[in-house]
Design brief:
It is built from one helix and 26 strands. It folds into two domains: about 5-205, Jelly Rolls, CATH 2.60.120.200; about 215-370, Jelly Rolls. It is mostly beta strands. Strand 7 (about 90-95) and strand 8 (about 100-105) form a beta hairpin. The radius of gyration is 21 Å and the shape is elongated. The chain has one helix spanning about 340-345; strands at about 5-10, 30-35, 40-45, 50-55, 60-70, 70-80, 90-95, 100-105, 115-120, 125, 135-145, 150-155, 160-165, 175-180, 185-195, 210-215, 215-220, 230, 255-260, 265-270, 280-290, 300-305, 310-320, 325-335, 350, 360-370.
Length: about 400
């Protein structure tokens, strides 16, 4: 089972770099360049896919900061329907400290073949195989930049291609670009079910799915308090369906949970559906969308994931929330005792715990995404979505 440190099936549909708090790798995206509308979401393998249309006149990408490592393993699905008019980078690993490229993948304008390069080294290609066919394809790769030379191993749909190497001193990778930082590139590429690891032995991760769940029920109704944790209309959270205020996909500010009086022991608690039967869960990532009534005064709060025995697993975010626009956080969720297969059932989320409500913290949406091996051994080119009901975030 791979040891994942990044999971995203793009179900959140966020195209914003707004994030609470400082530090890299905490927002759903750490950098976004839309290039005049070149980013969007479309139907994917399992729900939504990230679509990037590079026009050849601007830089278009979504960037995320990964944990820094010198052995990066990745696995994701990509789809493109046409050979680009000029070749295009569509996925790039970067060293954020030196602001230099570690490795990238490229779609050829000559024939739609895939190319790979450890930056500055010899470009390797998929040979006669073209991938501009409108089908989903699985890209697995492993870059070892821990010593000279760097080595980039890669496979497409399980077929291994020639390693890309380059003579360079050891360097970190820690930043991932979906899309391009080259203004002349032209290509339209869709991405889905992206998972990453820093463990060399995980390569190749291989066929997988990223599925998701939004809150579908309430559990403990005793901790909201009177006139403390409320629905957006002012009703005490104890008397309303809290989960229905957090399940929109994509997130909106139309309804939400708010804390209007201090109470570090007050919270609303919501539950999630169990994973589909027969699925082995590799890892879970939590996503939060939240905001506040004003930016002029502090509003703190916590979003906590707990197991079925009420043990804290991970706080997706704890801190100041005084932003009037939707802001986002992501976090890998620590596995409960016994692992995810026995522990995902019964997982809950709690929002509240505010010690300062000079402006009121508001929680708009929650989501858990989890990576799992598919039922079949061969990755399908197209797949029916497995969803949690209702289909909202």
């Amino acid at each position: 089972m791979p040891t994942l440190d990044f999971i995203d099936g793009f179900e959140h549909q966020v195209l914003s770099s707004n994030r609470f708090g400082g530090g890299n790798g905490t927002g759903i995206w750490d950098g976004v360049n839309t290039g005049g509308g070149g980013l969007s979401y479309v139907a994917g393998r399992n729900g939504q896919a990230l679509r990037i249309a590079e026009p050849g006149t601007s830089v278009i990408f979504c960037q995320t900061i990964l944990p820094t490592t010198r052995t990066r393993v990745g696995s994701l699905y990509f789809r493109t329907s046409a050979i680009p008019s000029s070749g295009a980078r569509f996925l790039e690993l970067w060293d954020p400290t030196s602001a230099s490229t570690i490795a990238f993948f490229f779609i050829s304008a000559v024939n739609g073949r895939l190319e790979a390069q450890a930056d500055g080294g010899t470009t390797q290609t998929t040979g006669a195989t073209t991938f501009a066919d409108g089908l989903w394809h699985l890209l697995d790769f492993f870059i070892d930049s821990s010593a000279n030379p760097w080595v980039l191993k890669w496979k497409v749909d399980g077929v291994a291609y020639t390693d890309a190497t380059v003579a360079n001193a050891a360097s970190d990778s820690g930043s991932l670009f979906f899309g391009t930082r080259q203004s002349t590139d032209t290509a339209t590429v869709q991405f889905d079910d992206a998972v990453f690891s820093a463990t060399a032995a995980d390569y190749p991760i291989g066929p997988h799915d990223v599925l998701y769940g939004v809150p579908t029920g309430d559990n403990d109704k005793t901790h909201g308090g009177t006139n403390v944790v409320e629905a957006n209309g002012g009703a005490d959270i104890d008397g309303v369906a809290a989960y229905a205020l957090l399940d929109e996909v994509p997130a909106t500010t139309a309804d939400y949970i708010q804390q209007v009086a201090t109470g570090v022991g007050n919270y609303a608690e919501v539950t999630f559906d169990d994973q589909p039967g027969g699925k082995t869960i590799w890892g879970v990532s939590g996503f939060l969308a939240a905001f506040a009534s004003a930016t002029t005064a502090s509003a703190d709060g916590t979003t906590r994931v707990v197991d079925g025995s009420n043990n804290t697993l991970t706080d997706i975010y704890a801190g100041d929330m005084s932003e009037t626009a939707l802001h986002y956080r992501r976090a890998m969720i620590a596995a409960p005792g016994g692992g995810w297969d026995s522990g995902y059932a019964g997982v809950k989320a709690r929002v509240g715990f505010s010690g300062t409500v000079t402006s009121q913290p508001r929680w708009a949406a929650l989501m858990l995404q989890y990576a799992t091996a598919p039922a079949g051994a061969v990755p399908p080119t197209r797949k029916l979505r497995v969803v949690t009901n209702p289909l909202r975030w």
